[in-house]
């Protein structure tokens, strides 16, 4: 699928609530703040500023939610992925790590509140998240997650083999980490709901308006230009993430792209739904080369993996891998699985796998590098960027402002190598423990 093609194969595009009507930018608009990019980060920043009474305009090249915010798998888990909380503290230092940890681990509070306050119809359920133990040796790391996340206010717990099977319906897991605040939703409906919310608070939302440049304005401030118009603003925030094209020189070099694919089955039967994910949770199968899945409102399994080798390029093979993994995890599924929807998204990867906040010029900032933590992270970042726009001192923000810098070259191949290493490690660990391996492992 081409990078900027429509969502012909996306379940979310087929089932999301209609997009609100939004105009193209034409002529000159004067405002206090200009936000470039209509994903979760840009939308929540715009919403926060509009609620604060600030004149704000958001400019989006396609439609709001077009990029990662409308293409992701819909999981909403307020955690970090690659690094543990102690590792984040060592890497980021105080007070930055503690501030970011507090925002991220409470991110689902913000998601839930926005959905409630603005009555966003987006299939939101908050029935928890399970990171499973694929082998007995994984339990010690999961126990450490319980300790570190609960120390910062979460209420997670380690669950044994019996409870993880009761929650997931899978007999393959040796236990797991249960996070009761995990949820899932229709991500495109959520993006469109945030768009309506921002508009209801008085924000301007301009779509189908690719930004061609940003330059100082003769009368002060900045001029953000499109083919048909410009927004003149005191401050500008770029929140275009993995779908950055132009706008500011070298911004698209601050990350490397990692592709991910998502697929959705036909609706499962009532009998199958009573035994497969019977509590409607989100499940991570516990392997480093992940398989994450949950239901949508119609009872379709929505699952995601990363491309690796033939997987993701050979579509027939990829669908077989997805089917075999699902049926291995849930032997009670007897019907033929049809992956009726299949689509790709792109992640703006950083080696730290946490967002990077760049000081581009006086009054101009950018944020990239969400590294796949889209729904909760994008939703909480609006509070961080809006605080900067409202004048909060830089040293009091939850992210440190830094000069623009390119992502290391090795990030072009490191994610794929890491996936291969994880697969080797997990397979070796399982074999040493005498645990069965999933198909195509």
UniProtKB/TrEMBL annotation:
Q: Is Zinc given among the entry's keywords?
A: no
Judging by the UniProt lineage, the source's domain of life is: Bacteria
Q: Report the residue ranges that make up the FAD dependent oxidoreductase domain in this protein.
A: 32-388
Specify the enzyme's EC class, one word. Answer: oxidoreductase
GO molecular function terms listed in the Swiss-Prot or TrEMBL record: oxidoreductase activity
Key words, A-Z: Oxidoreductase, Plasmid
Q: Does the keyword Secreted apply?
A: no
InterPro entries reported for this sequence? FAD-dep_OxRdtase (IPR006076), FAD/NAD-bd_sf (IPR036188)
User: Which EC numbers characterise this protein's activity in its record?
Assistant: 1.-.-.-
- Tell me what this protein is called: FAD-binding oxidoreductase
Q: Which organism is it from?
A: Neorhizobium petrolearium
């Amino acid at each position: 699928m081409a990078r900027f093609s429509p969502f012909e194969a996306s379940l979310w595009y087929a089932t999301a609530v209609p997009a609100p009507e939004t105009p193209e930018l034409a002529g000159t608009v004067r405002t206090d703040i200009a936000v470039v990019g209509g994903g979760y980060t840009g939308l929540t920043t715009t919403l926060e500023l509009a609620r604060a009474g600030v004149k704000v305009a958001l400019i989006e090249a396609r439609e709001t939610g077009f990029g990662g915010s409308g293409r992701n798998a819909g999981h909403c888990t307020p955690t970090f992925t690659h690094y543990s909380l102690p590792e984040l503290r060592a890497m980021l230092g105080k007070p930055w790590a503690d501030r970011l940890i507090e925002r991220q681990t409470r991110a689902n509070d913000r998601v839930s509140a926005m959905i409630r306050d603005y009555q966003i119809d987006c299939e939101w359920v908050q029935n928890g998240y399970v990171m499973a133990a694929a082998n007995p040796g994984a339990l010690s790391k999961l126990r450490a997650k319980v300790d570190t996340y609960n120390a910062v206010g979460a209420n997670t717990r380690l669950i044994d083999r019996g409870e993880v099977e009761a929650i997931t319906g899978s007999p393959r897991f040796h236990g797991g980490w249960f996070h009761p605040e995990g949820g899932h939703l229709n991500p495109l409906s959520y993006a469109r709901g945030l768009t309506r919310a921002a508009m209801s608070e008085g924000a301007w939302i301009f779509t189908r308006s690719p930004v061609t440049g940003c330059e100082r304005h003769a009368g002060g401030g900045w001029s953000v230009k499109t083919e048909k118009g410009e927004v003149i603003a005191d401050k500008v925030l770029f929140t275009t993430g993995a779908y950055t094209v132009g706008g500011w020189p070298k911004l698209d070099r601050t990350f490397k792209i990692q592709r991910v694919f998502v697929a959705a089955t036909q609706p499962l039967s009532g009998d199958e739904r009573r035994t497969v994910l019977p509590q409607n949770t989100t499940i991570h199968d516990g392997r480093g080369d992940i398989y994450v899945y949950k239901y949508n409102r119609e009872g379709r399994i929505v699952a995601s993996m990363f491309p690796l080798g033939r997987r993701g390029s050979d579509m027939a093979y990829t669908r077989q891998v997805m089917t075999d993994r699902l049926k291995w995890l849930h032997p009670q599924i007897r019907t033929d699985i049809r992956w009726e929807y299949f689509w790709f998204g792109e992640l703006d990867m950083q080696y730290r796998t946490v967002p990077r906040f760049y000081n581009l010029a006086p009054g101009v900032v950018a944020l990239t590098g969400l590294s796949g933590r889209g729904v909760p992270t994008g939703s909480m970042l609006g509070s961080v960027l809006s605080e900067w726009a409202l004048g909060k001192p830089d040293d009091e923000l939850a992210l440190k402002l830094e000069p623009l810098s390119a992502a290391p070259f090795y990030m072009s191949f490191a994610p794929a190598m890491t996936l291969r290493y994880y697969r080797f490690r997990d397979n070796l660990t399982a074999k040493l423990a005498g645990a069965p391996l999933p198909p195509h492992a």
